[in-house]
Design brief:
This protein is mainly alpha-helical and 228 residues long. The chain has one domain. Helix content is 71%, strand content 7%. Helix 3 crosses helix 4, helix 4 packs antiparallel against helix 6 and helix 6 crosses helix 10. The relative contact order is 0.14.
Length: 228
């Protein structure tokens, strides 16, 4: 259970960092460059909506990656989803979080499992692989979270399901689930590795934000000295 709690905490931290990263970078670079910087993550985000909508037989329309300013900041991409019931809408809205999480964990796992392969190559190949890994983790982890519009109705559904669960439990309908059968060694090991791998994009975000803060802080101090 410790690893699952750690995973939830890391996802929450990554969510906050992604919002902070978007706001911070938008102060220094144009939305067009911001869109280009996060393009791999934006593509995965919108394709996740599209794929799950198709699986759930919900009609989809045009998909675009043209950045636009919105009330909540910058909108880097969009895909038209037809109106549907709240449950399917919530699943479609949440899809990029699940898909992005799986891709982030998968990328780190594949790299660590094959790190000796890259080390045996030329140093520039290893350096390119590391930089590519860092870039993909940065782009995907900062764009995998759904917007408030994507998650419309999700809170209401969760509250409804919670009420139904509590009511069923009080009425005595309690399925006998074996905790040991669910929490197998394989499941716990997967949670442990995921918790470790998810630290990588968190550390990347923290490093970038720290560098930006250090740079802007030193620049503001220089301006004050110049005025004096």
């Amino acid at each position: 259970m410790v690893y699952f709690g750690l995973l939830i905490s890391e996802i929450a931290i990554l969510f906050l960092l992604s919002r902070k990263m978007s706001k911070t970078l938008s102060k220094f670079i144009s939305i067009n460059f911001l869109s280009f910087l996060f393009l791999p993550g934006v593509i995965i985000h919108e394709l996740s909506h599209l794929l799950i909508a198709a699986i759930l037989f919900v009609p989809v329309g045009n998909m675009e990656f043209t950045p636009k300013k919105s009330d909540n900041g910058v909108k880097l991409g969009s895909v038209e989803i037809a109106k549907t019931d709240p449950i399917r809408r919530s699943i479609i809205g949440f899809a990029p979080v699940f898909v992005g999480f799986m891709i982030v964990v998968g990328i780190v796992y594949l790299f660590t499992a094959n790190v000796l392969f890259f080390k045996d190559k030329e140093i520039y190949i290893f350096a390119i692989a590391v930089l590519g890994l860092i870039y993909l983790l940065f782009a995907i982890s900062n764009t995998m979270f759904s917007s408030s519009r994507d998650m419309e109705g999700t809170i209401e559904i969760l509250i409804t399901l919670l009420i139904i669960f509590v009511a069923v439990y009080i009425l005595g309908f309690r399925p006998q689930l074996s905790f040991e059968k669910i929490m197998t060694k394989e499941v716990i090991e997967a949670a442990r590795k995921s918790a470790i791998f998810l630290l990588v994009p968190i550390l990347i975000d923290l490093f970038i934000l720290a560098v930006i803060k250090l740079f802007t802080g030193s620049r503001s101090r220089t301006h004050r000295h110049d005025r004096n």
